[in-house]
Write a structure and sequence with these properties.
Layout lengths: L3 E9 L8 E2 L1 H10 L4 E6 L5 H8 L6 E7 L7 H8 L3 E6 L1 H4 L9 H10 L3 E3 L5 H4 L2 H4 L10 E3 L7 H11 L7 E4 L6 H11 L4 E2 L9 H9 L5 H15 L3
Parallel strand pairs: 1-3, 3-4, 4-5, 5-6, 6-7, 7-8, 8-9
Antiparallel strand pairs: 1-2
Helix pairs in contact: 8-9
């Protein structure tokens, strides 16, 4: 079964994660040893888009898809996107780290670009509900009907949040909204989410270098669904959204 890890970080973190980091070579070793065929990579928050893109986009040893980190105060971001947009597969917005909701006006031009170019936007959804609630990206659906959203951590990284999120996004209004599994641990509740929204709405990710693929692959393997549905979660859905 083909496995794509659709949510990994490579590079160095700020003091948020104690300046921890990993290299592209270390990532490749971990991914290969975990049985992961390819990965969607994005920088850690103290690594530039340009540096990681140059190391990964044509890497001869492993297949990477690139996810551009969208920080509105990054002075190099617009030039980077303009130069590389056709080879960038997704955008990543992290409200908690940037300390602004995804509905902040500073994100508007990037959401418009993502919508126009059909680049899925991965949105960190966490426990900081004032800033990183899954409810804020859902507010964008009416304004950007073509925008593809992937709510990271199943919309909240704890069962009470991601079960609530699953109930909400099964509404046909949210046809372009998906859920990423990165960092979620409670396999019983992941099973409930998949049964609520359907396997076609769930995308596997590990959150490496903060997590290991081998920690989270068994959660999808354990789901009480057909093998064909597991394959959608492991690779089919993300490939479809990236048009690969």
């Amino acid at each position: 079964m083909k496995i794509i890890d659709a949510h990994i970080h490579i590079g160095k973190w700020s003091k948020l994660f104690f300046a921890y980091g990993s290299t592209v070579e270390q990532a490749i070793d971990v991914l290969k040893s975990s049985g992961v065929d390819s990965a969607v990579c994005m920088p850690a928050d103290n690594t530039t888009n340009t540096d990681l893109y140059n190391e990964t986009i044509d890497n001869p040893d492993y297949k990477f898809y690139f996810n551009a980190w969208i920080d509105p105060v990054d002075k190099e971001l617009d030039h980077f996107l303009e130069k590389n947009i056709e080879r960038i597969s997704l955008f990543k917005i992290h409200p908690s780290i940037q300390r602004k909701r995804i509905t902040d006006p500073s994100y508007e031009k990037y959401l418009e670009l993502a919508s126009e170019k059909r680049k899925p936007v991965v949105v960190h959804c966490g426990r900081w509900q004032d800033i990183a609630s899954y409810k804020f990206p859902l507010e964008l659906v009416d304004k950007y009907p073509e925008l593809i959203l992937i709510l990271a951590h199943l919309g909240g990284d704890q069962p009470s949040l991601y079960l609530e999120c699953a109930e909400e996004i099964k509404n046909k209004k949210f046809a372009n909204v998906y859920l990423g599994t990165e960092s979620v641990r409670e396999f019983y509740f992941v099973n409930k989410v998949v049964n609520t929204v359907g396997a076609e709405k769930v995308i596997f990710g590990s959150d490496y270098n903060l997590g290991l693929p081998m920690m989270y692959i068994p959660i999808v393997d354990s789901l009480d669904i057909p093998a064909s549905d597991k394959e959608m979660i492991f690779s089919g859905n993300i490939l479809r959204l990236m048009n690969k």
